Amino acid sequence: MKKFTPSEHYEPQLLRGGAFTHLNTLFGLGNQSGWPDFLWLNGLAHLKNSNGQKVSFVPDSQFQEETRYYEQIIYETGHIPTREQNWHDLFGALIWCLFPKTKSLLNKSHIDDIEQYGLKQRSKHRNALTLFDECGVVMAITDEQIKTDLRAHNWHSVFVSKRTQWGKAIQPFIFGHANYEMLTQPFIGLTGKVLCIVVGTSFSTLTLQQKYAYLDDILYTRIAYEGILKDNSQMSPLPLLGIPGWCEENEDAKFYDNTDYFRAKRR
Fold first, then answer.
1. Which end of the chain is more exposed for a tag (fewer CB within 10 A), N or C?
2. One Pfam family for this entry, by name (predicted)?
3. pLDDT at position 57, please?
């Protein structure tokens, strides 16, 4: 297993298959010969932030003299400072395109929290927003027991016993762009934060684009009106390399015997 070291070059072979299947299906990301440019990125984005500003990705170099906080820039202008040839920011831009309502809500929630507590003091709510934004994985499940098993760290039950249910009753959708960045060079220990959404069996009949739109709506509602990100309590650790199809080594059930990675729940 490779150790994570950020790549300085665009290597499309890193983005083919596994966890990147969705990005390839919707954006053809693995077929790009070089770093996607801003014209391409902004051609994907037809959305507005919660302040009514048209969202656009703008080179980070244009904000060198900027004194406003990152989230304030996005909320007040709709401009998202984006570093060129940078995995983290590239994936961040694509998540905006996949979950526009939720990303806009998270941005507004940061602004509301800053107005209440200031920039120096971070509330539990704002910490949860950041954690989900960077490391979140939305798990669409048809059985509440999956959520129970994930929270209890019953890894063999989820990854081995229920392996045939992945892609059907259990479907993962990456929200945290830092997950994607690290998955370009995966390493044992790579862990996301999972948030489960119970869906009906008809969910599997939707197109991939429809699934993202559906989850975006559900996430928006649950975050805005049910407060599921008021703190970190609704999220639980998810060893990303345990997800079937995301790592060749996990085809052997013995892979899950590594208790340093697939840790038991602390009692």
1. C
2. DUF3025
3. 97
Both tokens of 35, joined, read: 């770093």
Beta carbons within 10 angstroms of residue 29's beta carbon: 20
Both tokens of 57, joined, read 């990705």
Q: What is the DSSP string of the chain?
A: -PPP---SS--GGGGSSGGGHHHHHHH-GGG-SS---HHHHHHH---B-TTSPBPEEEEGGGGTT--S-HHHHHHHH-EEEE-TT-HHHHHHHHHHHHSHHHHHHHHHHHHHHHHHHTTT---HHHHHHHHHHHHEEEEEES-HHHHHHHHTT-HIIIIIITGGGBTTTEEEEE--HHHHHHHTS--TT-EEEEEEEE--GGGGGS-HHHHHHHHHHHHHHHHHHS-TTSSSTT-EEEEGGGSTTS-GGGGSGGGGG-TTTSPPPP-
Q: What is the DSSP string of 213-262?
A: HHHHHHHHHHHHHS-TTSSSTT-EEEEGGGSTTS-GGGGSGGGGG-TTTS
